[in-house]
Design brief:
With 678 residues, this protein is of the alpha+beta class. Helix content is 51%, strand content 11%. It has 24 helices and 20 strands. The strands form 6 sheets. A 5-stranded mixed β-sheet has the order 1-3-2-4-5, with helices on both faces. The chain has a 5-stranded antiparallel β-sheet with strand order 8-9-12-15-16. Strands 18-17-19-20 form a 4-stranded mixed β-sheet, with helices on both faces. A hairpin with a 2-residue loop joins β10 and β11. α18 runs antiparallel to α19. The longest helix is centred in the middle third of the chain and has 26 residues. The radius of gyration is 25 Å and the shape is globular.
Length: 678
């Protein structure tokens, strides 16, 4: 009996027809294992995971393998995006046992959940042998198996410990983090390290803020070069916008084709801030088209943003995206086909599999002559129309609270910068206007969906699908990312309710996730008990729960003037600080928030009757220091603390600039405001 048919997770639903008697993660599954006196097999993955699909096709769809699993185990299927707490605990165990981790993750555990053997992907012959060996060991060497499990639990308990050393996250430490990143920078290809190469969005956001605070040209150059290399490589979809999960090589040529919401949200923030600070036309275009990708491809009407586009199409990687020169000619004609092959580096030998090539932008066309840009855009439109006739990758349409928070924050920042740079004279002004309109609608719908569907009895739920909320409780990153998003939406709209909701989420997090010494656990004090309570301080593919919560606390404190939230943020940052200087690649978001605190952050209030068009508002957003909050609206606008007791000056709009709760006199000219922010 397969029990996954009623699951909300698309990943679990992919396995609903397997010959395996899958259980969802539940007390009932472990009780059944105890009743039968058999081990538990926990298989963890996610819908867009290529090797998860491979293992499913090879093993879980096989009748003989299914029978072997059913006879000897209680098998539990877990969506790591739906249950990041379960994933975190068993990933720590897997890394402790094997020295590495990844998905699919395969864990054998006792009926109380204690892991005793862990691994990742196994080809079918190896998996069959492993199933037989574990079943035999459980029957004939039970004491050794239990001893191994006890050792693993002790190891992961230590790995998840809190209450370690703390230190102030001060300027020397952030300077050391920037220097360490510079020493690990790939000056040839951009980014850090070798293959596979992941987009270092949080590290680059930190370096941008570090440059803004210190004037360090190296930090800006690393960011600019890496951003350009990613955007011109195969990692970026040259036709529809949006970034793939990572590059399988060191030079951004061939991607792993899945497109994740969290990567694109964080990269939208990166390119938006690079555009804001430099006016770079490539950054502008990529920010615009990434916002359009989120709104067009991932947003679910009336709901939030979907989690991912699959890595595979009909079981084949790259089927939707790769091209040959003859295919370009077929779509475009001989002359434009040759133009496209040259522009997008599509060769007879190919850069991918079977003579196919992933489109890369060979030259900088953003500064090219108008006729070249026009031809490029026409070719892009025709190729996209041709690509739309191909089979398309599947969509993981579940809505994850934390990742939607990241997307809302990114779009709110994009909307602010787009308004600053709006110009009817731009050749693509109509396109930019169209993108800002649809992105704004998607952002607001996502926020309303989180508030109406994911908030249940004052607590966040992790996921929803088709408008129906799932059972898994929100984890720390959900509270942090959604609170930060509501703070960003408050700044963009001036609406009081978003700030109120952010405060309620932060209060819940402080009450239920706090750990000794200023740290935080990733799960609530009343959450389901696992074999260890996760408390990971490091930023990986997404901000850690701790970093996300710190960001929300800092923004909320700056917007309200309530110092206890800042004090909680500083204490939590102190628990991460010892890692920042030594391992900055795994603390990018924490360092980003650290730069905001070191800068002030600035609190900028513009009292005006015209928040959308006042030059003071545009100047505040254009020149805002790292992590600054900016609010514009009428004096004493209800529910907006930064506008309280701040009148117009002699009937004119005025900007009130504070830094760390210490305020300057109000100014009424753009020149004066820019001088105060410099």
């Amino acid at each position: 009996m397969n029990r996954l048919a009623e699951a909300t997770s698309p990943y679990l639903l992919q396995h609903a027809d397997n010959p395996v008697d899958w259980w969802p993660w539940s007390d009932e599954a472990f009780a059944e294992a105890k009743r039968r006196d058999v081990p538990v097999l926990i298989s963890v993955g996610y819908a867009a995971c290529h090797w998860c699909h491979v293992m499913a096709h090879e093993s879980f769809e096989n009748e003989q393998v299914g029978a072997l699993m059913n006879d000897n185990f209680v098998s539990i299927k877990v969506d790591r995006e739906e249950r990041p707490d379960v994933d975190a605990v068993y990933m720590t165990a897997t890394q402790a046992m094997t020295g590495q981790g990844g998905w699919p993750m395969t864990v054998f555990a006792t009926p109380d959940g204690t892991p005793f053997f862990c691994g990742t992907y196994f080809p079918r012959p190896n998996f069959v042998q492993l199933l037989q060996s574990v079943a035999t060991a459980w029957r004939e060497q039970r004491e050794a198996v239990l001893g191994q499990g006890a050792a693993v639990v002790e190891a992961i308990g230590g790995a998840q410990a809190v209450g370690g050393p703390t230190a102030p996250l001060d300027a020397p430490l952030l300077d050391a983090a920037a220097a360490k990143l510079a020493s690990e920078y790939d000056a040839t290809n951009g980014g850090f390290g070798g293959a596979p190469k992941f987009p270092p969005h949080m590290n680059l956001l930190f370096l941008l803020r570090h440059h803004q605070r210190t004037g360090d040209p190296g930090s800006l150059e690393i960011t600019r070069h890496t951003a350009e290399a990613m955007a011109r490589g195969g990692l970026y979809d040259q036709l529809a916008g949006g970034f793939a999960r990572y590059s399988v090589d060191a030079h951004w040529t061939v991607p792993h084709f899945e497109k994740m919401l969290y990567d694109n949200a964080l990269l939208l923030r990166l390119y938006t801030q690079l555009w804001r600070l430099t006016g770079d036309p490539l950054a502008r275009r990529v920010a615009r088209d990434t916002a359009r990708f989120l709104a067009d491809e991932l947003h679910r009407p009336g709901q939030g943003f979907a989690s991912a586009l699959d890595a595979d199409t009909e079981g084949v990687e790259g089927l939707t995206y790769a091209w040959t020169p003859p295919q370009l000619v077929e779509a475009l004609g001989e002359e434009d086909g040759r133009f496209a092959a040259d522009l997008f580096t599509v060769t007879d030998d190919g850069t991918f599999e079977n003579g196919m090539s992933v489109l890369r932008l060979a030259r900088d066309v953003d500064d090219a002559a108008p006729e070249v840009r026009a031809r490029w855009q026409q070719v892009v439109g025709r190729l996209l129309a041709a690509r739309d006739t191909r089979p398309q990758p599947a969509l993981d349409d579940k809505v994850v609270a934390a990742w939607n928070g990241l997307a809302i924050t990114a779009i709110a920042e994009f909307q602010q910068v787009a308004a600053v740079y709006a110009s009817p004279q731009d050749e693509d002004a109509n396109l930019m206007d169209g993108v800002t309109i649809v992105a704004d609608g998607a952002m607001r719908q996502a926020a309303e969906h989180l508030a109406a569907v994911h908030l249940v009895d004052g607590r966040l739920r992790r996921v929803s699908r088709d408008g129906k909320v799932g059972e898994p409780a929100g984890v720390l990153e959900d509270y942090g990312c959604v609170a930060e998003a509501f703070c960003a939406l408050h700044q963009l709209t001036g609406e009081a309710r978003w700030l109120t909701l952010a405060g309620e989420l932060l209060d819940t997090a402080l009450a239920h996730f706090a750990a000794p010494g200023g740290a935080f656990y990733d799960t609530a004090d009343d959450a389901e008990r696992l074999v260890a309570r996760p408390a990971d301080p490091t930023d990986n593919a997404t901000p850690s729960g701790r970093s996300a919560l710190i960001a929300g606390l800092v923004a909320y404190s700056a917007l309200t003037g309530e110092t206890r939230y800042r004090e909680a943020a500083e204490a939590a940052l102190g628990t991460v600080a010892p890692i920042v200087g030594k391992h900055p690649r795994f603390t990018g978001y924490a360092a980003t928030v650290g730069e905001a605190l070191l800068s002030g952050p600035y609190e900028i209030a513009v009292v005006t009757d015209d928040p959308a068009g006042d030059p003071l508002v545009a100047a505040a957003r254009r020149h805002a220091p790292p992590g600054a909050v900016v609010v514009a609206g009428r004096p004493d606008q209800p529910g907006v603390p930064l506008l309280a007791d701040r009148p117009l000056v002699e009937g004119r709009s005025a900007a009130y600039v504070c830094r760390g709760f210490v305020c300057q006199r109000p100014v009424t000219s753009v020149e004066e405001l820019v001088a105060e922010l410099s």
